[in-house]
Amino acid sequence: MKNFSAVILAAGAGIRMKSSLPKVMHKLSGKPLVKWVVDSVSALKPDNIVVVLGCDSEIIEKYLSGVSSNIKFVYQKEQLGTAHAVMQTEKVLKDCDSNVLVISGDVPLVKSSTLASLIKSNKKTVSAVTVLSAEVENSFGYGRIVKNNGFLEKIVEEKDASVAEKQIKEINSGIYCFNKNLWKALSKVKPNNAKKEYYITDTVAILRGFGKKISLIVVKDKNEVKGVNNRAELAQAELILKDKKIKELLDNGISIIDANNVHISYDARIGRDTVIYPGVFIDTGVSIGRSCTVKGASYITNSKIGDDSIILYSYVDGAVIGKKVKIGPFSHIRPGSVLRNNVKIGNFSETKKAVISKNSKVNHLSYIGDAYVGEDVNIGAGTITCNYDGINKHQTIIGSKSFVGSNVNFVAPVRIGQGALIAAGSTVTCDVPSGKLAIARAKQELKRKIKL
Ligand code: UD1
Ligand code: CA
User: Fold this and answer.
1) What digits encode the pLDDT tens for the residues 209-259?
2) d(CA 226, CA 238)
3) What residues make up the domain containing 288?
4) Pair 261, 221 in one domain
5) Is the distance from CB of 216 to CB of 145 less than 8 angstroms?
6) Is pTM, for the whole model, over 0.85?
């Protein structure tokens, strides 16, 4: 959607967050607030995206430059209000003969399609500004939409509102589309209000005073324009996202036993007939196949899990897991773990940068790191890959159909051939050829008991 520029306001101190981190860098479902807004805006491919920075600008600029190369930054040295913030973008945008979408960096849930309708509507009605509003039950803290004979007259902030205006339930979302009259209107804004700030909201009455057309559109889903000013509102936004996700999953054939007692990230992909039990936390970057069971206090992030797998009370991060895999209870699957079909990882076992091929089992109390384990291998209880020599990490390779007895240490680098048998209690320091039995432990001695 060409022919508009976007201004994202992110210079405010965010005092109400009571944080050393700038407000717009606080994360909603793992993604900074400002990135949510940048993503919704970017999807519309504007001619320019300008972010206004002020307090702690370095952190925000560094982050945004790392995730997008299309953003221009301007700086508002003193935070004199939202109109003053937009004024700082004039030097970048004045010559663009297009509409300007102004949006706060703290309204993360707005959809691209809503922004597109706002811009289209402003163009179609040939308005100087179109304000996106919402009807809410509790309008406290928001700017109120004041109407005269049903038409938008002005926006009044909480601190400046009369008792009657405070009753108004229609609020300003902080999202507007202006035409090029914006710059003229901004030059007329005065800090005549309780906070002594230059308010962007005053441009509405100013443009009306110029005899220009000012318009309003009401967002269908009020949750989209939820502003985040404090921790309570951040938690509410999190809940809105989660509830939406849970509804989507329930509608698509996924069972969630107790929706109030799980966290499922907005980007999770889950197949039908999978059952999510209470206590599960599915963080960002997760895809789970069909007919899986995820049970108990399991945490999963950045992982792909195949159909018919079961995860019980386990921590899974950065793993690729095949079909019919069983993990847990109490397993730790760390980044770089690849568990192929039918693998079993049992209680108190940990894997890291390890490929465990199909049908293999690591059932109890083991650590398998920097390793390749072939097919149909049984790893006995308490087996450890000693992968770290204090400076470097080394590989352990265990061939298919090998049987590793309990309490074995593999001192890496070490290579075990196919079908080998490693005796329980062995500390393996040399390679074992295929088909051999390796015993690497002190011989048992039997001695006469000393009588006391
Ligand atoms: C603002 C609106 C209010 C609206 C609400 C919607 C004004 C005066 N009020 O109130 O009508 O209902 O959003 O969420 O605009 N910022 C700057 N520089 C400044 C001040 C603020 O860049 O000098 C940025 C902030 O970082 C923030 C945005 O502007 O992203 C809005 O500021 P904020 O203080 O959160 O305004 P609200 O009180 O929420
Ligand atoms: Ca706000």
Assistant:
1) 999 999 999 999 999 999 999 999 999 999 999 999 999 999 999 999 999
2) 11
3) 254-438
4) no
5) yes
6) yes
